[in-house]
């Protein structure tokens, strides 16, 4: 709904090995300059503000394109996976409740189930898989 059929046809006819997010920005810049010449934009200050906003928007689009273009190396995902599993393995042991008043000899492990640590583990591993 943002493009007319003619604009869509022109955009699809452009050959580029990269994303074409910049084409509507170039169209907007040309239309803004034409609007200034026709007097639809009152003064150069207003045109300058329009172009600054366009440049800010274009910069954000470019940043998104770079995030999509440069993939995260496999080593990083492996390191994060090992770190998450190691963290929660130690949490299962470290967050055990030991009550010295119960008279545990040698402070043996309390084998109660740490429910919130398990919930935290399931959420983190779920996010890790996404």
Automatic annotation (TrEMBL):
GO cellular-component term (any): chloride channel complex
Keywords: Cell membrane, Chloride, Chloride channel, Ion channel, Ion transport, Membrane, Transmembrane, Transmembrane helix, Transport
Lineage: superkingdom: Eukaryota
Principal cellular location given in the protein's record: membrane
GO molecular function: chloride channel activity
Compartments where located: Cell membrane; Membrane
Topological relation to the membrane, as annotated: Multi-pass membrane protein
Catalytic activity: chloride(in) = chloride(out)
Residue intervals passing through the bilayer: 74-97, 109-128
Cited PANTHER family: BESTROPHIN (PTHR10736), BESTROPHIN-2 (PTHR10736:SF1)
Recorded family membership: Belongs to the anion channel-forming bestrophin (TC 1.A.46) family. Calcium-sensitive chloride channel subfamily.
Known function: Forms chloride channels.
Official protein name in the record: Bestrophin homolog
Organism: Bucco capensis
Lineage, uppermost ranks: Eukaryota, Metazoa, Chordata, Craniata, Vertebrata
């Amino acid at each position: 709904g943002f493009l007319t059929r003619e604009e869509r046809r022109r955009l699809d006819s452009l050959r580029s090995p990269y994303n074409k997010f910049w084409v509507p920005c170039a169209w907007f810049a040309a239309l803004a300059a034409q609007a200034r010449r026709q007097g639809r934009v009152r003064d150069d200050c207003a045109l300058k503000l329009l172009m600054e906003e366009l440049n800010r928007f274009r910069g954000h689009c470019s940043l998104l394109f770079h995030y999509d273009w440069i993939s995260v190396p496999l080593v990083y995902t492996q390191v994060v996976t090992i770190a998450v599993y190691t963290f929660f393995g130690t949490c299962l042991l470290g967050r055990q409740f030991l009550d010295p008043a119960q008279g545990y000899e040698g402070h043996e492990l309390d084998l109660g189930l740490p429910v919130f640590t398990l919930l935290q583990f399931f959420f983190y591993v779920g996010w890790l898989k996404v």
